[in-house]
């Protein structure tokens, strides 16, 4: 199992995202992921840098770790032909270390371009067409496409990496799991959805990597860690069907007003007990995940987590999970 470091653009200033990624590589993490948002989930998260600018800087500043979008939506805010160009360029800049993680998106980020937010079945159809377009463009040559949702007119990518950029697709339920099995090199999820992982394998994804992410709140004062976890991660308490529909941070504030710290910490390891983190990873390993990244709560607590993880957490995880 590989262990990564997740950069959360919603909580961290742009320049620090770069230094955090560089220092994560130095601390021995196996890969670095980055979120791709227009808005933060909550106002007090306070940031939302353009992920692709940060990725370009990270491609230059890092040397070993794969760089991964977790995840980019290629359906509304970005046209899939433009996503293909960005990803191919990242593949070149990173010397083949880039992985394009894709998701069907949330109204929170996609409404800014002024298009109506479609129902889930339409979003999945758009997602499938978008990935098809990206794949075709990764193959080189001119691409013309006439689908139900997208058109591409004589597009061609002139700068391509030596091998096509691997594509990961996020899935939380069976429909998205089947779509990922059809189109993706990698399955991704921020929930330990063992049933989706099994479906992915049965539908054609057997043997392919499965990436997950665990939010954490590391620190010596457990009570403070729990308060910090609640402040950063309470947005995730509503079901995904609700999260994908809300249009702005103020709506997430209202929807999570009654969420208690204990509701959040049930899925967010808090404190500095390595055993709690091992237990969390075990749940994902049992669900079939092969790669797990950690997203530390609080921009001002990143270095503390990296120092502790390098000395205490990563050695134990590698001994336990290989």
Main attributes of the structure:
alpha/beta; EC 1.-.-.-; 10 strands; eight-stranded parallel β-barrel; TIGR03557 family F420-dependent LLM class oxidoreductase; Luciferase-like_dom; 322 residues; two-stranded antiparallel ribbon; TIM Barrel
SSE blueprint and pairings:
Elements: E1 2-7, H1 14-27, E2 31-34, H2 51-61, E3 67-69, H3 80-93, E4 98-102, H4 107-110, H5 120-138, E5 143-146, E6 151-155, E7 167-170, H6 174-183, E8 186-189, H7 194-205, E9 210-216, H8 222-233, H9 240-243, H10 249-255, H11 261-265, H12 274-286, E10 291-296, H13 302-321
Parallel strand pairs: 1-2, 1-10, 2-3, 3-4, 4-7, 7-8, 8-9, 9-10
Antiparallel strand pairs: 5-6
GO molecular function: oxidoreductase activity, acting on paired donors, with incorporation or reduction of molecular oxygen
InterPro entries: F420-G6PD/mer, F420_G6P_DH-rel, Luciferase-like_dom, Luciferase-like_sf
Protein name: TIGR03557 family F420-dependent LLM class oxidoreductase
CATH first level: which class? Answer: Alpha Beta
* Order of helical and strand elements: EHEHEHEHHEEEHEHEHHHHHEH
Distance between the termini: 6 Å
Query: Which sequence of strands runs across the widest sheet?
Result: 1-2-3-4-7-8-9-10
| Number of separate helices | 13
- What best-fitting shape do the alpha-carbon axes yield? globular
Task: Give the fraction of residues assigned to helices.
Answer: 40-55%
Query: What name goes with the CATH superfamily?
Result: Luciferase-like domain
CATH topology value: TIM Barrel
Q: What integer value in Å does the Rg equal?
A: 19 Å
Percent strand: 5-15%
- Average pLDDT works out at 97
Low-confidence stretches: none
């Amino acid at each position: 199992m590989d262990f990564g470091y997740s950069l959360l653009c919603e909580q961290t200033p742009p320049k620090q995202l770069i230094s955090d990624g560089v220092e994560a590589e130095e601390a021995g993490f196996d890969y670095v992921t980055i979120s791709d948002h227009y808005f933060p989930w909550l106002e007090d998260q306070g940031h939302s840098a353009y992920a692709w600018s940060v990725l370009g800087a990270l491609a230059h500043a890092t040397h070993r770790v794969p760089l991964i979008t977790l995840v980019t939506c290629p359906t509304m805010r970005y046209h899939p032909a433009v996503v293909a160009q960005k990803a191919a360029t990242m593949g070149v800049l990173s010397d083949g270390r880039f992985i394009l993680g894709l998701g069907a998106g949330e109204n929170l980020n996609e409404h800014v371009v002024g298009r109506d937010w479609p129902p889930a079945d339409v979003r999945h159809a758009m997602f499938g067409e978008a990935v098809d377009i990206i794949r075709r463009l990764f193959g080189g040559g001119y691409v013309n496409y006439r689908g139900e949702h997208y058109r591409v007119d004589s597009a061609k990518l002139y700068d391509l990496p030596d091998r096509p950029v691997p594509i990961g697709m996020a899935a939380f339920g069976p429909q998205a799991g089947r779509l990922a099995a059809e189109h993706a090199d990698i399955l991704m999820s921020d929930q330990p959805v063992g049933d989706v992982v099994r479906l992915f394998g049965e539908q054609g994804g057997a043997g392919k990597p499965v990436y997950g992410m665990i939010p954490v709140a590391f620190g010596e004062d457990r009570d403070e860690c729990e308060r910090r976890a609640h402040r950063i991660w309470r947005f995730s308490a509503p079901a995904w069907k609700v999260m994908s529909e809300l249009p702005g941070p103020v709506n997430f504030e209202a929807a999570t007003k009654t969420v208690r710290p204990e509701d959040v910490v049930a899925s967010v390891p808090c404190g500095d007990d390595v055993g709690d983190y091992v237990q969390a990873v075990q749940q994902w390993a049992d669900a079939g995940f092969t790669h797990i990244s950690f997203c530390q709560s609080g921009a001002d607590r990143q270095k503390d987590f990296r120092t502790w993880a390098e000395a205490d957490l990563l050695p134990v995880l590698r001994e336990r999970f290989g």
